[in-house]
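Escalation from tier 1.

The customer reports that the assembly of two entities below gives different structure tokens on two consecutive runs. Tier 1 could not reproduce it. I'm attaching the input and our single run for tier 2 to review.
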Amino acid sequence: MTRFDLDIINYQSVLWITDMEQDLDISHSKWDFVFEFLKQNGRLAYFDGYRLDHNDDDYIKELIESSSESVLYNYHRVHHVFLKLKDSTLTNHRRVLTELWDCYDRPRVFFFQEEQEAQHIANRFSKPSNASARKQPIMTGIQHGYVLSRGMEENVMRIDKSDDAPPFPWETSRSKLALDRLANEGFLAKLLRKLHLSFDIRIKRL
Amino acid sequence: MEISGIVTTFLQEHLILPGFIPSSDSLFEVKFTEALHKDLGMLHTYFLNIQENDAI
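Tier 1 run:
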């Protein structure tokens, strides 16, 4: 599939892919296999940018204009946008999408087969309770779609799918480097804290 | 505090000194093996899931 060191976890309609070499850069050719699959199974692509993290409005407007064919939702001078992407943005100009992606704290790209699914998301954002709408499970009300986002770590790509969308064609395949890091970098302590457990587990190399 | 099922299973599988009290505050030592490597991967998946669901 790829010669790059990627750590893949496929778990209950969610896929996490960790780039073991660098922070997530969706324009890199190592992610072509992901975009090819998503475009094959969700012909319409939409960008959702939430929490603008850039202060040059003109630059962002330029990126929006060059990457998208329509704006379905725009809140507070592009603080939150939902855009229909041009086909060419994904096929030939993923660098522009990356620049747009980097302008937001919570960027996502949705892939749908039907236009009405996108409208459903746009309507959800438009409601006065926008903030709580974002807290709903991401695929609520979606029949056939995928959404690509950044994971909790800077080098993790996360992809969610709706129940009816075709399954991901990639099985869990752990990178040796990733597993070594889990053993060496205090992961168990983090997990125990997360579970509010007060004991500790030490890994011993005998 | 009671240890969650997934952690209990992990400890039972890999503990150097078998037999522990599931609600103690002890330090548990596990042996580094290939099987541990794999089960750490499983725990990590579980961790990612709860961490991201909490963050939404």
